[in-house]
Amino acid sequence: MRVAIAGAGAVGRSIAQELLENGHEVLLIDKNPKAIKVEMVPRAEWLLADACEISALDDAALERCQVVVASSGDDKVNLVVSLLAKTEYGVPRVVARINHPNNEWLFNESWGVDVAVSTPRLLSALVEEAVSVGDLVRLMTFRQGEANLVELTLPEDAPLGGQRVGSVAWPRDTALVAILREGRVLVPTPDDTLEPGDELMFVASQDVEDELAELFS
């Protein structure tokens, strides 16, 4: 994929390095000359420009990007970049960083955001995930409420323990996408059994989360 990252600070550079290692093309954009540190991510393309300006995004050839990441430290900038990427250039996937939790409600499809990442929310979710057994923990929201990535660790006395994945009547709009077991990541098949201690990862609509949790209670 070709990925444009608006915001070449520590977060943007870290994302760029990870994507480059996975074989993607990356363009880093920042208007601050001090942020243009080519030597830190030499394999990336760099552009000194304001990502909130159409002319800069034209220079970045944003229409050729499959993904845009708005990763600056300013929520206003990230919203503008997301909106322009989606409405002016038709970028298929827009990921935006939320810096201030109070602004989380803005980061939705109305502003062109497909996936919003809130560091405080993610950290709190990971804390919950680390200590919760038998409780549904929301890790990430896709398209601001249409679907969530949720995790549940199967307790020892769970009624579904020992049952086959294919025999469980999962709620509508729910997909079991991975089972984490003893350090391994398993792609579930209908014949796999659910075992106590399994970490189950689901993509599910928000309105069926309670129903999903009841299956394990």
Automatic annotation (TrEMBL):
Residues 1-117 form the RCK N-terminal domain. Keywords: Ion transport, Transport. SUPFAM superfamilies: NAD(P)-binding Rossmann-fold domains, TrkA C-terminal domain-like. GO terms for biological process: potassium ion transport. Residues 137-217 form the RCK C-terminal domain. GO terms for molecular function: monoatomic cation transmembrane transporter activity. The keyword Ion transport applies. It comes from the Bacteria. PROSITE patterns: RCK_C, RCK_N. InterPro entries: NAD(P)-bd_dom_sf (IPR036291), RCK_C (IPR006037), RCK_C_sf (IPR036721), RCK_N (IPR003148), Trk_Ktr_HKT_K-transport (IPR050721). Pfam families: TrkA_C, TrkA_N. This is Trk system potassium uptake protein TrkA. It comes from Actinomadura livida.
